Amino acid sequence: MILVDADACPVKEEIYTVAFRHKTPVRLFAGQYLRHPDHPLISMTMAGDAFDAADDLIAEAAGPGMLVITADLPLADRAIKAGAQVMTHRGEALTAANIGGKLATRDLLADLRGGLEGQTLGGPRPFSKSDRSAFLQALDRALRTLGA
Q1: 32 alpha-carbon distance from chain centroid
Q2: Which Pfam family is an annotated match for this chain, by its short name (predicted)?
Q3: What is the largest CA-CA distance in the chain?
Q4: Contacts of 43 (CB under 8 A, 6+ apart)
Q5: What is the DSSP string of 113-124?
Q6: Hey, is 49 helix, strand or coil?
């Protein structure tokens, strides 16, 4: 099963395409209803407006044999600890071996931003066609690894 942190996920259509090919169920989690295909493999869980409500539901549902798609590093850490495989919407695998460093970098950058009020540090690079392609390839590989 694929669990998707869906509120800001730019690759939902790609997830559906690969999931249909592999006949793998997809469960979307979001604060409120998101349009999605009316298909037996696709389900939607609305978490409501509470802070991190969708993340909490994903973390509870995550476990061995599941793939979580998220860019949220604290959520990724929780899913990894629950035994799930995790990847970002750019196709990057997040693992027990690399999540600690990524969380530390995230925290350091948050501290730096806090001390530079009024200044712009930029953000992630724009999502590109090559990112979309890399995601599709990584998702296909991950589902084959899970035996889907």
Answers
A1: 17
A2: DUF188
A3: 49
A4: 25, 26, 27, 28
A5: HHHSTT-----S
A6: coil
| Beta-strand relationship, 42-46 and 93-94 | unpaired
Cβ contact 143:24 at 8 Å = yes
> Domains in the chain, ordered, with CATH?
2-116+125-145 (3.40.50)
In the beta sheet, which residues pair with residue 69?
4, 87
Task: Report pLDDT digits (tens) over 73-110.
Answer: 999 999 999 999 999 999 999 999 988 767 666 666 56
- 68 vs 61: CA distance, rounded Å: 10
Q: Is the pLDDT of residue 52 over 90?
A: no
Would you give the DSSP letter of residue 141? H
**pLDDT per residue as tens digits for the range 114-132:** 655 655 556 667 888 998 9
- Nearest alpha carbon to residue 69 among 46, 47, 92: 92
Strands, E assignment, the chain: 2-5, 26-30, 42-46, 67-69, 85-87, 93-94
